[in-house]
Each structure stands twice: as C-alpha cells, then as structure tokens.
Amino acid sequence: MKKTIHVSNQGATLDTSRRNFLKLSGIGLAVAGLTMIGCTDDDDFQMPGNNQIFDLGTGDVGILNYAYALEQLEADFYTKVVNNFYSGISSIEKEIFTDLYHHEVVHRDFFKAAISGVTQNVLPKLEFQYTNVNFNDRNSVLATSKALEDTGVAAYNGAGKYISNPDYLVIAGKIVSVEARHASAIRNLINPGSSDFSGDDVIDANGLDLAKEPKDIVMAAGGFIKTSFTWKERGIN
C-alpha cells in the first residue's frame, strides 16, 4: 500500500529574524520539503525479540535506519551542548549551536516518522556516550561537532548509491546539503575566515565531498553509540 509521510516543523521554533549563515543557507532545506511519496509498507523486516540485537534491515529500510541512527546521535549531542553551554561561549556560537540543535531534531524526527510509516522495522531510541568529550570546554565541543558533521556528510554521500527509491534520494540530497553547511559553520568557528570549509581532509582531488562506506562510518561513530545494532547487509555485525 502506498503511503505519504509528512513531517511538521512545529516542534522546531526558530527566530527567523536572525540573518545568520545557517538561517540563510540551511533552514529552508532543514524543515521544508521533507515528504516521502510512493513508499510501500511491504519491505522486509524482522522484529527483534528479547535479548536480540536490532538489525537495520535490507534495501532502503536499512538505509533509512542507518540515517536515523546518525541523526539520533547528532541530535543527542547538540541537545547536551545547548542545555549546558560551555563557559565563555559567544552569542554567535550560541546561535549556531542552537540552530544546529533544531536542524538535527527535525532530521531525527523526520526519519522516525518516515520509517514508522513504511515498516515495523524501526530502529529503537539509542543510548550514547561521550567518554572523551568535555562539554564544558570549547575546543572539545567544537572538535566533536566537527567530527560528527564531517562524518554525517561522508555518510550520506556514501549511502546514496545504495538508495533505490528516487524519493528517498531526493530527501537524502536535501539533508546532506544542510549537514555540509553545518560542517562549514563549525570549521569557521574553529578557524575563522579560513578555507578549512573545503579542506583536503573533506574534499577530494575532484573537488567533491568525501563519500564513505557505511561500515567505515559506523566504525568511526561507534565510540559514541552504546546501544548495539547490526547491519548484516552491509557487513556490520
């Protein structure tokens, strides 16, 4: 059966009078046009029983759950940042982190709604850990944010080739463009006025953002994720 999934941005209250970088370039993509059409609810799924580790699934469902896991992580991280800003944070940094928080919450909630509308194989709420992150230290928070945003961009770029539903691919393209803006904004906070937004560590020889395989992404982000899951289709056990 075909379904259409809509996600409202009512939960993400934003001050649209502030004309900062993220407002102008990102928020329109963050909360607008997040609609999936033509989804089917007969995708393969396997509900985990007691003491079973959740598997992300196969095909597009697996990709959606994968993206949902990453968006859960980013939303959780920025929730912690904005609930207890580090000492000495500037007003501009507060604005940027608050914007990033709202964007990631919208992305997270969108994926949850979208996946729930097409399958019962929905990744549960994950638990995270930040063993090496000092949320009271500016450098630690910015370094972690940079790592998460760079990883998110590379994750979407690497997963695109596995998406078969064109509607999903359009959505992934919208969201990854927002994530790239996040990454640029954080790099500018770390090194203002520099060209770090297009550094060799994130841009390849062809001038394109790096793309990484899901297995490499999960390995990189795994230190933050306490809840175990597998993605057998992509060799993640």
Mean pLDDT: 83
H-E order = EHHEEHHHHHE
Fraction of residues in β-strands: 5-15%
Main sheet overview = 2 strands, antiparallel
Classified by CATH, the class is: Mainly Alpha
* Structural class based on helices, strands and sheet pairing: mainly alpha
Organism: Chryseobacterium phosphatilyticum
Protein name: Tat (Twin-arginine translocation) pathway signal sequence containing protein
Keywords: Membrane, Transmembrane, Transmembrane helix
Transmembrane segments: 21-38
Explain briefly what this protein structure is.
InterPro entries: Ferritin-like_SF, TAT_signal_bac_arc. It comes from Chryseobacterium phosphatilyticum. With 237 residues, this protein is mostly helical.
Q: Which features characterize this protein?
A:
transmembrane helix; Ferritin; two-stranded parallel ribbon; mainly alpha; Ferritin-like_SF; Tat (Twin-arginine translocation) pathway signal sequence containing protein; membrane; single chain; 7 helices; two-stranded antiparallel sheet; TAT_signal_bac_arc; 4 strands; 237 residues
